[in-house]
Amino acid sequence: MLSTGALRAHLLAAGLAGPVATAREDSLRSYRLFAARDPRVLIGLDPEWTWGAIDLIELMADKCGVSADPRHTSGRDVIDPERTLEALEAFGERVGDAARRGETVLLGTGHPHRLVGFYAALAHALSAAGCAVLTPAQGRCVDILTRFGLRTYNLDYVQGVALVRRPDRGRTGCEPGAHTHSPLPVRTALAAAAESGGPLPDLVIGDHGWVCGAGQLGFEAIGLADTDDPALFVGEAEGRVSVVVPLDDAVRSDYYRPLTRYVLNRACLSQ
Q1: Which of 95, 147, 167 is nearest to 124 (CA)?
Q2: How far is CA 184 from the centre of its chain?
Q3: How far, in Å, are 41, 91, 185 from residue 181 at the CA level?
Q4: Pick from 231, 242, 249, 223: which is nearest to 48 by CA?
Q5: 115 three-class SS
Q6: Model confidence pTM above 0.85
Q7: CB atoms within 10 A of CB 93
Q8: CB of 235 within 8 A of CB of 212?
């Protein structure tokens, strides 16, 4: 079993915690946009409370360990590895609860280039434990507004993990899917599950709009988030997201493998 000390060292060495690649400028911009209720940053969450930029800095300092000083406006953001470890423990325990109860789960990512392997390992372990891993609305079109205008994507599943692809990219080559923050994919998947009369998820696992979109609709959700994604942490603070793990969500995909082992060990799902 990977020790806590070894994982802490890995988090720092891989840039998953400690000084991360996310720029302080980008995080502060996200906090300002969230305070203005820009849907690009809300990513499916409709906050109940009033959140100013200063409130968000304080929240993110508490949840992630970033600087609480609003005068700190440049450089690299910092994530406290102790907060990452604490959240990973809670994340693993919730995954373990899902396995023991035989819950129905839905997994999805807006970071397929980086995180599909992490979620796929969870999907495999949960399925092996007797959980139903849902794949509703496969192939369904989803229109997402991007900085380049309205783009049509197809909802797809890779090893039990939902993601979106550009239709013109197909399934050929090494195209792993598109990066997105949108909550529309999870709304599409949940609507399709409801329309078919099939089971709805007891737990949604993912990131970005998958977590916020599900949590806003009343589904229990847990996930990963970077320092420039305040919506997930606001969702956690307001009680619509159960667990958020603060980490850099855009490092090399193989750097997440020790986290996978740690979570599966915490969940008593090691293989």
Answers
A1: 95
A2: 15
A3: 8, 21, 10
A4: 231
A5: helix
A6: yes
A7: 15
A8: yes
At residue 47's C-alpha, the angle toward residues 42 and 51, to 5°, is 90
Q: What's the per-residue H, E or C state across 212-256?
A: HHHHHCCCCEEEEECCCCHHHHHHHHCCCCCEEEECCCCCCHHHH
Give first-to-last CA distance, the chain, whole Å. Answer: 11
d(C-alpha 116, C-alpha 2), whole Å: 21
Inter-CA distances, 208 with 177, 226, 231, 267, Å: 15, 9, 8, 23
Helices (H) and strands (E) in the chain, counts: 10, 10
Task: Tell me which DSSP letter residue 136 carries.
Answer: T
Tokens of 208: 């970005």
CA–CA gap between residue 104 and residue 98 (Å, rounded): 8
Mean pLDDT, 10 residues at a time, the chain of 271 residues:
92 98 98 97 98 98 98 97 98 98 98 97 98 97 88 96 85 71 98 96 98 98 98 98 97 97 94 57
Please report, as a single letter, which amino acid is at residue 41.
Answer: V
